[in-house]
Amino acid sequence: MNQEIKAYNDSLPASDKAIGQKLAQEIDKHLVGAENKIWHRHPVWFLNGNPIVGYSKLKDSVRLLFWSGQSFEKEGLQPEGSFKAAEVRYTDVKQIDTGLLKRWLEKSAKIQWDYKNIVKRKGVLERLL
């Protein structure tokens, strides 16, 4: 595990730490070859410089965010924001369905919107093939 992400997880309260560790483990396992780092103070995984998935501590939960998640057509994700992102929130590590998470991660590698160039395109997202 990336040492910055490990330090992030270690800084979380005990119940959230378990969630962060499980998410990082599953993401690393199923999103092979992805770069991962702390980005905007949260763990994020990238493919070819494009943000794919990340998680962050909220007041009452840990939010797992897929930047292109609204395009996955998979149950369990809720729309987030005005672009293509979708999320799920966890309050206990037992809520993480690893089979469903694996399917989302598989979709995240295949279905991507170009967030890397969103500023250059003045807020316009384009689908990557």
From TrEMBL:
Where the record annotates domain YdhG-like, the positions are 17-107
The name of this protein is: DUF1801 domain-containing protein
Tell me where on the tree of life, at the top rank, the source sits.
Answer: Bacteria
Q: Which InterPro entries match?
A: YdhG-like
Q: Which organism is it from?
A: Chitinophaga defluvii
